[in-house]
């Protein structure tokens, strides 16, 4: 099937310096409200500079089909500053077709699943960047993009960094924990596995994968220890998990404005 995709792909424009050796995959994250357009421009520039730092002087940028033209213009300037020959793909084409046609030596993106295709089906080195920020900003926590972003963050090396040493069992446990935190009611049977994994990996079971607020709300390892104070949350219009934290009810009674302060603290825990 992959060979058929390559054979059916349109011809790429010729480049005098030779075919690109690195591919940057854009995703237009600003369109779904995760980054601003300016932030996404800087993300693309970071990808290009990372390719240049790895020794690539010919880079192809595959923008998202709906991304604004300003992305291309900003990246062209960054390429000129870095001494890189940049080709911008201005026709719709699957990333997998590019892999077959160009046989690149590096593919870079934020959390595109095409990174995984490149690594597993074509044995092309891959790198990610910006994935941790994306995981931090994804809302609500149940956002379906969280699963592919978690996979990419866990198994694809950071641009310019070392490859992760985690195995499939680790990834399976991580996805079980994240999946349970995303849909705890629908996947209640996963709670014992999620608890065990979170308890065994306290250094990993934190942002960007799971926020402390989420762990606290679900009473999972890594969250704040809470006690139940019936009626406090309802009376003060606070999240029930916040009102159960020791000392909260007493502070709310004694200090004017404490509820507003605690709301800010609660948001900061996320």
Automatic annotation (TrEMBL):
Pfam families: A-2_8-polyST. It comes from the Bacteria. This is Uncharacterized protein. The lineage of its organism: Bacteria, Bacillati, Actinomycetota, Actinomycetes, Kitasatosporales.
């Amino acid at each position: 099937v992959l060979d058929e995709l390559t054979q059916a792909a349109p011809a790429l424009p010729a480049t005098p310096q030779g075919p690109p050796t690195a591919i940057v995959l854009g995703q237009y994250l600003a369109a779904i409200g995760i980054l601003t357009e300016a932030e996404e421009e800087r993300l693309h520039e970071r990808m290009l500079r990372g390719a240049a730092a790895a020794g690539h002087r010919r880079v192809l940028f595959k923008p998202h089909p709906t991304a604004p033209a300003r992305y291309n213009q900003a990246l062209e300037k960054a390429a000129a500053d870095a001494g890189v020959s940049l080709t911008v793909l201005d026709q719709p084409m699957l990333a997998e077709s590019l892999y077959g046609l160009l046989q690149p030596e590096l593919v870079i993106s934020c959390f595109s699943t095409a990174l995984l295709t490149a690594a597993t089906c074509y044995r092309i080195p891959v790198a990610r960047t910006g994935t941790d920020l994306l995981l931090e900003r994804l809302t609500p926590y149940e956002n379906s993009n969280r699963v592919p972003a978690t996979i990419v963050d866990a198994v694809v090396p950071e641009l310019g960094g070392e490859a992760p040493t985690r195995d499939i069992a680790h990834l399976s446990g991580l996805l079980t924990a994240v999946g349970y935190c995303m849909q705890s009611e629908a996947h209640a049977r996963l709670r014992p596995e999620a608890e065990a994994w979170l308890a065994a990996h306290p250094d990993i079971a934190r942002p960007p994968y799971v926020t402390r607020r989420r762990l606290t709300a679900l009473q999972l390892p890594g969250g704040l220890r809470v006690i139940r104070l019936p009626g406090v949350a309802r009376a003060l219009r606070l999240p029930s998990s916040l009102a159960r934290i020791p000392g909260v009810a007493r502070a709310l009674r004694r200090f004017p404005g404490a509820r507003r302060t605690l709301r800010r603290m609660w948001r900061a825990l996320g």
